[in-house]
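quick one, 482 residues, struct below
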Amino acid sequence: MSQPNYYMHPNRQYRDNPFIEALGQPLTMQQFYAVSEFPFINNVDLTGVDASLHGYYIRTQIDQLNDVYAVQDEAFRLYDVMRRMIEAGYDKRNPLRTDIRRILTAIDRDKTNPNQVAYLSGLDLYSVLQSYLLVGLSGRGKSFMVRRILKLFDQVIEHLNYTDHKGQEHTLDQSQVTYLYVEIHERRGQKALLLNMLEALDEVTGQAYTYEHRNRSVNELITIVRKLLIGHSVGLVVVDEAQNLAKSSRNEVLSINEKTSIKFVEELFNRVGVPIMLVGTFATLALFERETTIGRRVTKNGSMLLASCDSNSSFWNRFIRLLCQTQLLKNQSTPVDILCRHIHYLSVGIPAIASSLVRATLAYLTFLAPQDQDLSIAALDLVFNREFRVLTPALTALRQGEYHKFEDFEPMLMLESVASHSDVMTQITPPSAMNLIQGEVELSDKPVSSQIEVQKRKKLDQLAPSVLLGQLGYNLDKAQPK
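---
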């Protein structure tokens, strides 16, 4: 909770709005990078420590590589969008306006009564509804990037006194929640989604709305959530793990009226009236595959679709150099440029996998004799094959563009690179990576493969000669029965 330091907004439309001016000036790109990056700090002092324990304490330092952070190339643009969404969302909720203060007072008076809603129409929030969609591969760093950006805003601001640009003083007694972060971990239906929003609000405000409204109907909860978000002056709702709003799993027992269908999400966006941002994997695109109305609402401010990191991008090179703290080893000789390319190949440009692989390899090398402690291609391959082999089928499918083989990848059949990466891909030397989609992507204008076509491709894979002969007990490699 913080006291506001108001900054007069240059845009006259937003001027003299305490909710907007309390945000202060936006960060420049240089400032954003400076406050967002987490460098590696070597805090290990082995003075006086028995030499036989040096490896252990170095490994504790390697574990802390999990905390380093390199700002992704797309992060500043995302910060800019989120900041402008918050400002635009407050445009029609200026607490200095008499009619707005009257509505806020009415909300506070009967915020737990779902039947009193007529006065909300006076806010005219539909005309300023802001929405954005951020999707990408699992492990791409979407959630962490969003959380890092949100931390740049004071989440709760207490307004007491405000002086407008004409010098007139105003007395305010209003708490402002600039953002609400909601994670959807389980596919439990409409009511669970709404209660998740109340839980997030409880965590910030110290209230007990979730318990108080646990027995409400879905329709009542929608109204209550809307009133509470407006009453607490919430500027932005971020819904993470949004892929769980898509199709329910097969073993989930929910009635038609309970599932978080596309129609329900559309109604929620219509009635909440506060800027909303969806963050999820490519499976989130299943929400939009049949209807365009919800897609238009969710992407009113645009969207960002992130495939594997570009191997030649600024972020990937900064990220790998941050991870490869080879000064912790005794005999490093392999150049970092070679490591950048090979780590990209093994991890298919997914930062979470690259981080785990590098940390595991560094830790493994500390067990070896000093002359063998070289973070090399051979060492990376050894650790990958020993500890990450379970990921091989999925990563191979990504490299070869065989998205139909994994349910989570199927929506990627709709994607194509924003810019041609043909020149980039020819520089990546194993040829099996030629179909890997890198960087920011967009929905293709080409006809989208239907679910029937995807199932046909899966059936064709199952009818491959090697598979059929294998079922009969033959091995093509040995040309004889198993």
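The first strand starts at residue 131 and ends at 136.
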